[in-house]
Specification:
This protein is of the alpha/beta class. It is 38% helix and 18% strand. The chain binds adenosine-5'-diphosphate (ADP) and 5-O-phosphono-L-ribulose.
């Protein structure tokens, strides 16, 4: 530890705000030992059916959250994790958090979410727009078309396309569909920063989400002229709703307020780290801080993050940001919007009751049962190839109007066949991303896997075979929460920087899964079919997926 005055048993708390739950972990600073943990499921989960306040159905592609659910994590999971660790709260010297990225909160000047005000409680636009709210694709399309026409210099930093998941598309949607909410919103805040505001009592804006999701490059956002061309009332979006001094990752955002100390049971005045993103904090937790080491954080979605020593334009990446992951290197990000979410959708909607009954009788999950059955198959035995776009395509096509496909189904196709084809489809999606990075001059030399899906060994072997790289696995089951705790340790002054913290507190097991040559060869053939379908449906040869989305929207609005 850099600071020798820090107690040898000092701890930090990391809190990972995921899509469905928040997890807290208590970590010893000197060696990264995880002493205690607790999870709190958001009571409202993902609001994508009806708005709880009204009972009215939300339009297609909407995904909201309720901000009080995040505070409940501070009130429950944090004290439970400290109790689980059995450490005296006085030993905790800092707290750090990570969040899903581009989960956006419209707030008043003092940070109150608009949905908490009685006059807005029934307006869906006053709620948090979750990262996977995909209903701003129309706005994203306009941003992209205009940016291309004007040859905006920032566009290549985002692989040539801006996502509907990001701050600008969602902000423009609020303006155009709920001008009264837009007018009342003093700040359009990343939930990553909102939670730090709750902990410290002051608003800080982290450089990571600002760089990736907030289109902040070389010290500037998109210009007023650009925004005015999108919509004259949007011209001052940056100045009015977004702009705020940026804070570097690992810096101290402030100290824990008395109120937040009461919620969490932690000492008032301890260091609170600047807000950060679930994917990005995981890289140092897996000791992947050097160029070429790509980390895939596989959960409901997959994020791919990697540092590089060169600046390159990778087509369809989510972005490249100076110091976006660790200081001094270019931080690259790409991703797949649906991975575990696709498997969950399949289990919920497509698996016959007999499988559920069998899984229940054996005390295992349907995922585990289907995985076990699928694992007995040889590559290609199911005769299927699928596209992994049930939640759209984040990289490299950046299009959330795309959808899922399974080719090759017959009357003999079973649930485990399709499940395996879906696992493979997500591996092919990752392969496209890796190949695109390598072709653009940012070679991927190591793939490190983190996140909840590590537990599926068949899935891991499929990934090793499809990408033809040995897989390293993060040492922690709580990668993001550990990464947040490490940032807390840096903010508290225990380490010089996040690299030093990674050396002491991070961990990785190298080459846990290695490619099986005959599988590599078989997947190489299947991948060519995946690529052909990918380009056919995804690159404009056949726009049927976009047409179907529109047809569906029209039908729901009674227009057909
Ligand atoms: N055995 C399994 N195999 C494959 N997917 C699984 C399995 N068990 C759960 N899942 C999926 O994992 C996802 C949850 O991943 P997790 O990392 O815990 O969540 P998050 O992305 O919110 O952090 C869910 O989408 C679920 O469908
Ligand atoms: O978009 C990002 C990171 O940039 C993620 O926050 C988002 O994909 C959500 O990740 P999870 O699936 O909740 O792990």
């Amino acid at each position: 530890m850099t600071d020798k005055t820090i107690h040898p048993d000092a701890c930090v708390v990391g809190v990972d705000f995921g899509t469905l739950s928040g997890r807290a972990v208590v970590v010893r600073v000197r060696d990264g030992a995880e002493l205690g943990t607790a999870v709190h499921d958001y009571s409202h989960g993902v609001v994508d059916g009806v708005l709880p306040a009204t009972g009215r159905a939300l339009p297609p592609e909407w995904a909201l959250q309720v901000p009080s659910d995040y505070l409940d994590v501070l009130r429950t999971a944090v004290p439970q994790a400290v109790a689980d660790a059995g450490v005296a709260p006085e030993l905790v010297i800092g707290i750090g958090t990570d969040f899903t990225a581009c989960t956006m909160v419209p707030v008043t000047a003092d940070g109150t979410p608009l949905c908490d005000l009685p006059e807005f409680a029934e307006n869906p636009h006053a709620y948090v727009k979750l990262w996977r709210h995909h209903a701003a694709q129309g706005q994203a399309d306009r941003i992209n078309d205009l940016a291309h026409d004007r040859k905006e210099s920032w566009l290549p930093r985002y692989g040539g396309l801006i996502s509907s998941e990001w701050e600008f598309a969602k902000g423009l949607q609020v303006l155009e569909e709920a001008p009264e909410v837009y007018a009342a919103m003093e700040h359009w805040v990343e939930a990553a920063d909102w939670i730090i505001w709750q902990l410290t009592g002051r608003y800080t804006r982290n450089a990571c989400t600002a760089g990736y999701k907030g289109i902040h490059q070389d010290g500037a956002y998109p210009s007023e002229e650009f925004l005015a061309e999108l919509n004259p009332a949007f011209a001052t979006f940056v100045a009015d709703k977004l702009d705020h001094p940026l804070s570097a990752l690992g810096d101290k955002a402030g100290t824990l307020t008395a109120e937040a100390a009461e919620w969490t049971g932690l000492p008032e005045g301890i260091a609170v780290a600047v807000g950060n993103v679930d994917a990005h904090v995981t890289a140092p937790a897996a000791q992947a801080v050097e160029p070429g080491q790509m980390v895939a954080i596989m959960g409901t979605s997959t994020c791919h993050v990697m540092s590089g020593d060169v600046l390159r334009e990778v087509p369809g990446m989510c972005g490249v940001v100076d110091g976006g992951i660790v200081p001094g290197l270019w931080g690259y990000e790409a991703g797949q919007s649906g991975v575990g979410d696709i498997f969950a959708w399949f289990v919920k909607n497509q698996v016959p009751p007999a499988y559920h009954e069998q899984a229940d009788e054996r005390g295992i999950t349907v995922h585990e049962l289907l995985t076990e059955l699928a694992a007995t198959q040889r590559v290609g035995e199911h005769g299927l190839v699928a596209l992994d776009w049930h939640s759209g395509n984040r990289s490299v096509l950046v299009d959330h109007e795309l959808s899922g496909v399974v080719v090759g189904q017959t009357l003999a196709t079973k649930a485990e066949d399709i499940y395996r084809a879906l696992l493979e489809a997500t591996a092919f999606g990752t392969r496209v991303i890796i190949d695109t990075f390598t072709d653009a001059g940012v070679p991927v030399t190591e793939l490190v896997i983190a996140g909840g899906l590590v537990k599926n060994r068949l899935l891991m072997q499929i990934y090793a075979d499809v990408v033809n790289l040995p897989l390293s696995i993060i040492g922690s089951a709580q990668g993001p929460a550990l990464g947040s705790a490490m940032h807390a340790a840096v903010a508290a002054g225990a380490f010089e920087d996040i690299r030093e913290a990674a050396g002491h507190m991070g961990s990785v097991q190298r080459h846990v899964f290695t490619p099986i040559p005959e599988n590599v060869e078989a997947y190489e053939r299947l991948f060519l079919d995946y690529l052909e379908l990918h380009d056919y449906f995804g690159r404009g040869v056949n726009d049927v997926m976009r047409r179907l989305r529109k047809f569906r929207r029209d039908a729901l609005e009674g227009k057909n």
